[in-house]
């Protein structure tokens, strides 16, 4: 049986337990940066594929551990043009796939491709709120650093920081402005005399309660009867049990509201856990970028060529 908790503690407990549960898996998936190491093309390709595989494993583990939402609320503050976002993903995915299929590469990249990668990255950072795509950002970031020889480090680092900040805002919104008021309201309702017993708890279903039964009350009903001997009428009265409408209506209202709060808490907590997953992945990658920044900055720049061809067919110079 889940342990009881209080309204003031429930969000913090969820945040802490989710981060701890997923942290080790995320750390294993994002162990170190790829770019900056003296490796051959084939090794770089394998490492990019390995990052992709491990991030997918993190996502699958998270989904098997918690029920996640597909799209996070409060991460993007404006209406998103899904076609523009789709085109940005397509550009990055096509370039990544092209790189993975190369048999050799002499370290050059077309100017149009360089601009396209940067533009696509910035669009995704600004507009993306889908869970699966947020978790893939380290893979995109590493690919961009690899094919630009670290020249877009600032753009990648800034983008990751921007997305972490957006996720922090989403987590605060979910925790402080959605979960907390609901938990406060539930705690207040659980103290009502119509509730027999109940607690907020640290796992689904988040609220457990039982209600006192419906009540009746005594009511005296009188009916006038004609009386021939008293020259008029007299009242004949009897006492009966009738529903206590005030109690029963209040009881039913509290029970219904607790059910609605329970459902809303479940939805918001799914979003909160999903946001913690995405933030944990990006924060880990943020740490990796910071630790490897000096080495990345010291690397020779990529050769940018004036070509309208798409990457990777730019390496024949």
Description:
There is one protein chain. The protein is α+β, with helices and mostly antiparallel strands. The protein has one domain (4-189, 265-305). It contains eight helices and seven strands, in the order βαααβααααββββαβ. The strands form three sheets. It has a three-stranded antiparallel β-sheet. Helix 3 (82-100) packs across helix 4 (111-127), helix 4 (111-127) packs parallel to helix 7 (153-190) and helix 6 (137-147) runs antiparallel to helix 7. The protein is elongated, with a radius of gyration of 31 Å. The N and C termini lie far apart (67 Å).
Look at the structure and give the mean pLDDT. Answer: 89
Separation of the first and last Cα atoms? 67 Å
Q: Helix proportion of residues, in percent?
A: 55-70%
Uncertain segments are 312-317
What is the H-and-E element order?
A: EHHHEHHHHEEEEHE
Shape: elongated
- Mind describing the biggest β-sheet? 3 strands, antiparallel
Secondary structure elements and their pairing?
Elements: E1 4-5, H1 7-29, H2 41-65, H3 82-100, E2 108-110, H4 111-127, H5 131-135, H6 137-147, H7 153-190, E3 195-201, E4 207-211, E5 216-227, E6 232-243, H8 245-297, E7 303-305
Parallel strand pairs: 2-7
Antiparallel strand pairs: 1-3, 3-4, 5-6
């Amino acid at each position: 049986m889940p342990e009881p908790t209080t309204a003031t503690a429930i969000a913090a407990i969820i945040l802490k337990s989710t981060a701890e549960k997923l942290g080790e898996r995320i750390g294993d998936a994002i162990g170190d940066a790829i770019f900056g190491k003296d490796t051959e093309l084939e090794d770089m390709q394998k490492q990019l594929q390995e990052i992709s595989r491990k991030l997918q494993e993190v996502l699958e583990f998270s989904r098997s551990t918690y029920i996640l939402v597909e799209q996070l609320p409060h991460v993007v503050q404006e209406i998103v043009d899904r076609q523009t976002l789709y085109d940005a993903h397509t550009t990055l995915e096509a370039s990544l796939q092209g790189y993975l299929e190369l048999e050799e590469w002499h370290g050059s990249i077309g100017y149009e491709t360089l601009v396209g990668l940067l533009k696509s990255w910035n669009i995704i950072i600004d507009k993306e709120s889908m869970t699966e795509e947020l978790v893939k950002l380290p893979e995109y970031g590493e690919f961009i650093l690899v094919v630009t020889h670290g020249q877009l480090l600032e753009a990648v680092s800034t983008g990751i920081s921007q997305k972490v900040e957006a996720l922090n805002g989403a987590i605060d919104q979910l925790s402080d402005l959605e979960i907390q008021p609901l938990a406060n309201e539930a705690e207040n309702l659980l103290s009502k005399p119509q509730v027999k017993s109940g607690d907020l708890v640290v796992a689904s279903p988040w609220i457990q309660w039982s209600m006192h039964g419906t009540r009746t009350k005594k009511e005296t009903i009188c009916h006038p009867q004609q009386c021939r001997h008293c020259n008029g009428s007299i009242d004949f009265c009897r006492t009966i049990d009738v529903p206590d409408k005030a109690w029963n209506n209040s009881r039913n209202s509290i029970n219904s509201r607790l059910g609605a709060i329970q459902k809303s808490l479940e939805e918001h907590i799914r979003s909160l856990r999903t946001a913690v997953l995405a933030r944990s992945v990006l924060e880990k990658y943020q740490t990796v970028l910071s630790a490897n920044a000096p080495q990345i900055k010291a690397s020779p720049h990529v050769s940018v060529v004036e070509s309208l061809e798409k990457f990777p067919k730019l390496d024949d110079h």
